[in-house]
Amino acid sequence: MKIRTLSYIRFLLLLSNAIFYGCAFGSVTVPTAKRGLLDLRQETFDEQVALNGEWEFYWQRLLRPNDRVDSPGVLVEFPFMWRNYVLNGKRLPGFGYASYRLTVLLPKKRKELRVSMPDAYTAYRLFVNGKQVAANGKVGTTPERFIPHWQYQAFDVDNNMDTLHLILQIANFVHNKGGIKKPIYIGEKTAVELGRQQSVAIDLILTGCLFMGGLFFLGLYLLGNRDKAILLFSLYSIVYCYRIIGIDNYVLHTIMPNLDWFITVRLEYTSLFLGIGLFGLYTRYLYPEDVSKKVVETISLMCFSFTAASIFLSPAFFTQLINPFLVIMLFCIVYTPYVYFKAYQKKRPGAVYALASSAAVMSVFTITLLHYWSFIPQMQGLSFIGYIGFFFLQSLVLSHKVSFELKKARQQAEQGLKAKSEFLSTMSHEIRTPLNSVIGLSHLLLRNDPREDQVKQFDVMLFSANHLLTIVNDILDYNKIEAGKVSFEHIDMDLAGIADNVIAGLKADAENKHIALNLEIDPDLREHVLGDPTRTFQVLSNLVHNAIKFTIKGSVSVSIKIISRTEKYLNLKMEVRDTGIGISAEDQKIIFQRFTQADSSTSRSFGGTGLGLAICKRILELQGATLHLISKEGEGSVFYFNQIFERSLNAVKQNNPDVLLPSPKEKPLQDIAILLVEDNPMNVLVAQNFLTAWGAVVDVAVNGQEALNAIDLNRHKLVLMDLQMPLMDGYESARTMRANGVTIPIIALTANLPDEIEEDVRQAGLNDVVTKPFLPDELFKKIMRCLSDNSADV
Asked: Is the pTM higher than 0.85?
């Protein structure tokens, strides 16, 4: 690992050297000033020319155009910073003032020329041939007479002038540096103007990209994904965009020329120090397992300390921090790509983009440092490409990170839903199994001529058990709807018959409350339609049951009307109207939410889970219909929906007419041997009592293996098989029976819902399913149907 690290650092250094030497050797030789004179008479000005070379320098003098100069100034290499320069045996301070002088010879015949001025530390005035042509701030000999300012300046050269006498006055009493660091350029006017426009455009575009990108990620953090890496990158982007628009070309100063220098210089240094600190923290939270926490915390602490200094201390002090801070930047140039390289090796999310972005930012920082040290020009185009590449790739890193987190969250949610579904299924089975005994024994006791007082008690017990079963069914139904596991049949159904069955089933409830229960069917509805009769029955039954529950006196009316009819479709309106307690306007907004009732207090007068209406609404929505409500508190409610059904071409064929439950004296299963496979003693007792009451002979096996050993094809005519048993479950036992040539009917007894086990039942060769807790008539009908079908096959 150490060898890889050393090789990686060596590669970065070689790349930096390549950039430097490529720029150095690629440069073109240009004329320079000698002893205060620059001869440009042979220049074509196809490229801008820097007025560099030997200028005359006058310390502590502000020369004016008409001043007599008794002795020539000291020759210095322009651009020239006077701080720490040794003059007459003394080292010059940063504070002070001075003048620079140069004579430029121009060709008499030339294109129109323009001179562009850089910033100077920290105020200047430029005279050409005795006339002031450019200025920044106010030049003075004392701090009281001095005002600092930085702003881009340019001026045109008179075509009649072939000689330019330049005097540049510079004063500084606020910055640790003094003098001028960047060259003055002269070139063809259109080229200089175009170059400036291009520079401004690049800075504005890049600033806009960084600022809007920062706002986007800040919004992403605030409105959803509270990932600290996203927050830090957004803050870094917003802070660092000032580095683009507020320095070098000083576009912001051009847009807002009256900006105070003391504010802008603090923003310049703060944006640099704070930006690097934020980026260090961003890298830590982006790949926390691959970064040294101590290293990042040290860098960030230093950056934030420098930031505090640039805010609270004077510019003369905090501007001296730039050189030690460049050491931190150099370290970051090497360390950040190293972290990304480690993340890439360990296949972290988005690490490939992070590694690519490190190459982009390394090139930008290298160009910035080399330009700061005056080794290369600004190279704004390459910096622009590097910045765009860096921020685009970092955006991909964060996008990939967010996508990864969302995928992870989705997987966790799916696992949670699966766990919830499995839990509900298990609880359903565990609740239904004892309910089967309660309901079954209640029916048996009611058939044994109990006393009148016992009948009432058994009825209450049976009602409570059925109510608990309804709650379990509602919860499971809503769970399936949420999971998207509801499928709808498209078969013939008799809507009028379904409505009749709903009314017949709930008539006793209405009579117990002395409520009239009415049904009105459109007389023109004489045909069947195609749809799901089970779900339609469920919706109507829930709505009517709900209306009865919340009606104290009066009536509940059900109506089915034809709205329109075409050759292929029927548009029907189904309505349930009651004279109950009604629903307030406020409660109508939440009445269709799950686990919600109009009266949700713990002392509410009406029971229920609050799932009935939510289930009805979702079932109808999945079929393209909408459940509507009209209600007024204290006057009742109307629930209605319009649903379009496809008209049935054929009437329903009743292959198996309804089988009526036999009376206690009848023995329809006389001497028919049935093998009952069940491990729960109470369920054995219930089923055995029903079967023997109908005349059957019952043999019992407590698991699937015992059933295989006990079955006798010469004796047994039918098998009732529980599906969940120890040693061998009902599925395996049934499959083995079929493989052994057993052809008699096998009916599953299960606490699972039929549609949950439909495929497993089919593959196991089971003929039918009876769901626990079962009603006597359901069990009897399915036994008789299977025996009838089997005898017909024989």
From this structure: no
